[in-house]
């Protein structure tokens, strides 16, 4: 076949639809062949599917090249303009991180997600933020918190907000801040007592600006947990993976708003340092460059046996990636357009490409890779996912579809061909051997990515059974990862 889409986003949808059609046909043929015990027909269905997906991949790449050739030079004002000036007069389309915006555009075109959002709104109604906050926390007036209100006034002016800001505080030593769904004329920011007491004015300015950023970019439009719970019978697990990936990318956009308000990258560095270390006194001589250098070799940090790798993982990007992404923004021509004291050293395109590479460290492994260990890695992913799906004794079609979303089509077809011939114990034995073979070649970060993606898939229907958690625990132990990491990922998934 030949693809006819004129844009990359439409092409991706067209390609995914073609792959889905091929998968559906293959599943039907596999079920018929397995029911009749016709092994030759199973092989034939797998081979046909592999050939189709290979042809589709070749056509997909060919069409990408054709579209890129047509749009070789895309100027900034030709990029999607999806953010309005309803909340602020600042140029949000220029400020936003491309990875955040691109997912939003994809979600806007996804009928399943949009239909689920409508149901969320119909079933829950509009959340009354102010009423909830007045009942659960203390409102900070200008008299009670003059410095905080100075910060709010500064951020309002810098970001050209059209609404006022109302602050609330709750008792907790944990450093935390969040924003609540806004009203037309008011934004709501709640901070823990610990962060107010132990962060400087500049550091709090970044924190407040960051939270305002979430409001400006309308990140409330996609409440991940509610979408997944409402869509448990309709959304595929791949939707969960994309929603969580967007959730992490959204933090990068919000960080940029925080820097615009703070306008002091060293203060931002101190903020991340305090958030990640918990040290807020002068007992340590903070040096920004040393702090950034500390995280250049992420593999070395994560492979430290004295370090708990789960600290780096949540629904947010871990701090080293955020500070590196913000360092690039701080040196960019994009930031220079908002801050006249900055001389842009790198172009917007170069900045976005590098940040995308950095953020990919938290994305699934490149399963299309032809590396020496790619097949074993994907086989481990498939079998691990199958054991999780089979934990309740039944693997339904939606779970098979989920498995197809985490491995390449060729490996998926091969695994489907052989899976019915294995007992559960044989699968477990093979997983044990694969984990042993891969242990010396996989970094801790890669292992965490594998477990995180399998955890997200297990929770994609909005809930997770104890039997599924036990399988995840066993997979973590095989990869020499603390089982607390599984609890952390599941907890974050439930709390997004």
What topology emerges from the helices and strands here?
Elements: H1 8-36, H2 39-70, H3 92-95, H4 98-108, H5 111-124, H6 129-136, E1 138-140, H7 146-158, E2 164-170, E3 177-183, E4 186-192, H8 193-198, H9 201-216, H10 224-230, H11 237-262, H12 265-277, H13 288-294, H14 298-302, H15 319-330, H16 333-336, H17 348-359, H18 374-389, H19 397-404, H20 409-419, H21 424-438, H22 444-458, H23 466-478, H24 484-495
Parallel strand pairs: 2-4
Antiparallel strand pairs: 1-2, 3-4
Helix pairs in contact: 1-2, 1-20, 2-20, 4-11, 7-9, 9-11, 9-12, 11-15, 11-22, 12-15, 15-17, 18-19, 18-20, 18-21, 18-22, 18-23, 22-23, 22-24
What features would you describe in this structure?
The protein has 496 residues and is mostly helical. The protein has three domains: 1-73; 121-362, no CATH class; 367-495, TerB-like. Helix content is 62%, strand content 5%. It is built from 24 helices and four strands. It has helices at residues 8-36, 39-70, 92-95, 98-108, 111-124, 129-136, 146-158, 193-198, 201-216, 224-230, 237-262, 265-277, 288-294, 298-302, 319-330, 333-336, 348-359, 374-389, 397-404, 409-419, 424-438, 444-458, 466-478, 484-495, and strands at residues 138-140, 164-170, 177-183, 186-192. A four-stranded mixed β-sheet has the order 1-2-4-3, with helices on both faces. Helix 9 (201-216) packs across helix 11 (237-262) and helix 11 (237-262) crosses helix 15. The two termini are 41 Å apart. Its cofactor is Zn(2+). Pfam families: Peptidase_M48 (PF01435), TerB (PF05099). One of its GO terms (molecular function) is metal ion binding. Keywords: Cell membrane, Hydrolase, Membrane, Metal-binding, Metalloprotease, Protease, Transmembrane, Transmembrane helix, Zinc. It is found in: Cell membrane.
């Amino acid at each position: 076949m030949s693809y006819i889409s004129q844009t990359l986003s439409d092409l991706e949808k067209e390609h995914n639809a073609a792959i889905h059609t091929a998968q559906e046909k293959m599943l039907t043929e596999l079920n018929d062949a397995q029911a009749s015990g016709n092994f030759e027909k199973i092989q034939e269905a797998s081979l046909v599917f592999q050939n189709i997906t290979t042809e589709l991949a070749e056509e997909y790449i060919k069409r990408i090249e054709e579209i890129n050739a047509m749009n070789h030079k895309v100027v900034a004002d030709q990029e999607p303009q999806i953010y309005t000036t309803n909340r602020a007069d600042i140029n949000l389309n220029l400020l936003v991180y491309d990875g955040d915006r691109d997912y939003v555009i994809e979600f806007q075109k996804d009928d399943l997600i949009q239909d689920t959002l409508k149901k969320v709104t119909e079933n829950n109604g509009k959340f009354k933020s102010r009423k909830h906050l007045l009942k659960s926390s203390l409102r900070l007036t200008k008299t009670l918190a003059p410095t905080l209100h100075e910060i709010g006034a500064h951020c309002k002016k810098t970001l050209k907000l059209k609404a006022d800001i109302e602050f609330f505080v709750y008792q907790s030593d944990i450093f935390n801040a969040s924003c609540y769904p806004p009203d037309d004329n008011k934004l709501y920011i709640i901070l823990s007592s610990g962060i107010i007491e132990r962060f400087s004015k500049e550091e709090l300015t970044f924190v407040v600006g960051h939270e305002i950023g979430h409001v400006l970019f309308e990140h409330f439009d996609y409440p991940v947990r509610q979408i997944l719970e409402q869509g448990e019978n309709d959304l595929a697990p791949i939707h969960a993976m994309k929603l969580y990936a967007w959730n992490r990318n959204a933090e990068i956009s919000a960080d940029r708003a925080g820097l615009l308000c703070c306008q002091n990258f060293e203060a931002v560095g101190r903020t991340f340092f305090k958030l990640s270390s918990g040290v807020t006194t002068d007992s340590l001589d903070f040096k920004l460059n040393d702090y950034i250098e500390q995280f250049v070799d992420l593999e070395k940090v994560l492979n430290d046996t004295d370090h708990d790798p789960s600290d780096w993982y949540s629904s947010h990007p871990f701090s080293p990636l955020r500070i590196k992404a913000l360092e690039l923004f701080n040196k960019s021509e994009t930031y220079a357009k908002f801050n006249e004291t900055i001389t842009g050293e790198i172009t917007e395109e170069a900045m976005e490409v590098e940040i995308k590479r950095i953020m990919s460290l938290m994305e699934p492994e490149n399963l299309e890779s032809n590396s020496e260990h790619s097949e074993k890695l994907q086989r481990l992913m498939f079998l691990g996912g199958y054991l999780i799906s089979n934990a309740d004794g039944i693997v339904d079609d939606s779970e098979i579809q989920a498995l197809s979303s985490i491995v390449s089509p060729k490996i998926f077809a091969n695994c489907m061909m052989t899976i019915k011939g294995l007992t559960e114990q044989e699968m477990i034995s093979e997983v044990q051997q694969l984990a042993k073979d891969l242990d010396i070649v996989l970094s801790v970060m890669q292992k965490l990515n594998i477990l995180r993606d399998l955890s997200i898939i297990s929770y994609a229907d909005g809930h997770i059974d104890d039997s599924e958690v036990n399988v995840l625990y066993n997979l973590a132990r095989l990869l020499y990862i603390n089982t607390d990491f599984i609890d952390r990922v599941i907890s974050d998934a439930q709390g997004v």
